[in-house]
Amino acid sequence: xxxxxxxxxxxxxxxxxxxxxxxxxxxxxxxxxxxxxxxxxxxxxxxxxxxxxxxxxxxxxxxxxxxxxxxxxxxxxxxxxxxxxxxxxxxxxxxxxxxxxxxxxxxxxxxxxxxxxx
Amino acid sequence: xxxxxxxxxxxxxxxxxxxxxxxxxxxxxxxxxxxxxxxxxxxxxxxxxxxxxxxxxxxxxxxxxxxxxxxxxxxxxxxxxxxxxxxxxxxxxxxxxxxxxxxxxxxxxxxxxxxxxxxxxxxxxxxxxxxxxxxxxxxxxxxxxxxxxxxxxxxxxxxxxxxxxxxxxxxxxxxxxxxxxxxxxxxxxxxxxxxxxxxxxxxxxxxxxxxxxxxxxxxxxxxxxxxxxxxxxxxxxxxxxxxxxxxxxxxxxxxxxxxxxxxxxxxxxxxxxxxxxxxxxxxxxxxxxxxxxxxxxxxxxxxxxxxxxxxxxxxxxxxxxxxxxxxxxxxxxxx
Lengths: 118, 335
Fold this sequence. Notes:
Strand order of the largest sheet of chain B: 2-1-5-4-3
Catalytic activity (chain B): ATP + protein L-histidine = ADP + protein N-phospho-L-histidine
Number of domains of chain A: 1
Largest sheet of chain A: 4 strands, parallel
Protein name (chain B): Blue-light-activated histidine kinase
Oligomer: heterodimer
Number of helices of chain A: 5
Strand order of the largest sheet of chain A: 2-1-3-6
Enzyme class (chain B): transferase
Distance between the termini of chain B: 91 Å
Order of helices and strands of chain A: EHEHEEEHEHH
GO molecular function (chain B): ATP binding; protein histidine kinase activity
Strand content of chain A: 15-25%
Organism (chain B): Mesorhizobium atlanticum
CATH superfamily of the largest domain in chain B: Histidine kinase-like ATPase, C-terminal domain
């Protein structure tokens, strides 16, 4: 079955890039979405294999999405410019793999592969 | 030497000593071995808002209703000082009843007086409350700047990755990529400088400038003032850049007499909207392209994705047109 990934990223150029890159690698992309409400709406309809989250979404944080994913048992990674995303986005982000920003393609694919097989 | 002379010598010595203590810019106390205040300088009275007569001759821990009876200070003077003759920059935080919370660096030094075999102690108190606040502020600003820098690099990486490289020369790729990079740099610059209500006007002027071969190439009609957030500036900057690039490649700006007219208005109401129009004329006859490239996708995405707006692109034979509608209130955004 094709693996699906939910992408939450508020910068449109980065969101577009991630979508194209992951689709080329055979992923089906849910979103990308720029904010919490749209992400939660997508999660109502479908349970993705994994998720990739930006932490700081302009004037809001991704925390609620991370909590929703955790309660549904969906593994996720963050793509954040913060060294310690949990200090900004809360305890739910502690210990979550951070693929960093700028995000290297190889690192991202490795982390996603690990998340989706665990 | 009579009594008069002796008094004069003592008095001169005292005046000199007091003069030295007063010259020190930071608060300073001279204590005897029983911790009674022998002398204090002006900076001390000023910083801690106390009076000379309530200070001199008092025991340190009884000063100002016991406000200097600080556990850390007791530890410093009672245990640290007897074992070493000097302590440098010992940090103490204390909430004073009158002047509030102070962060201080204490430096204490004992001075042995061979004449009467007694000890004096010099205690200087540097008030770093303001400095600490500024340092904390600086840390916060620096952290934010670092975060922004990484975000911008992420954006540049995405642009480089998304700019088409297939089937074109390295020179062509470089030209297209650098054009986009320039639009990002401009937007970044504008977002940092405060143009307030005139941000849209400043943005349009800046984004169109590289394409103004004659003053008539791109005509910007004066419009109402619109303040923009940094995200809007980034999206609109890239949008205008892509529109202008397309106009040079395929549209009105590919012909010498071609022009572009930009105008905008704000539709007031419960949900104010910005309507910006881009109208090309005087170029070669327009045909709708068979396939749309990354630039067109970028134009759509720039407005739709996080501004919750729309772009309508009309390929009219006499000239290409784009109508951009962006909600101006944040509540109307897809969050």
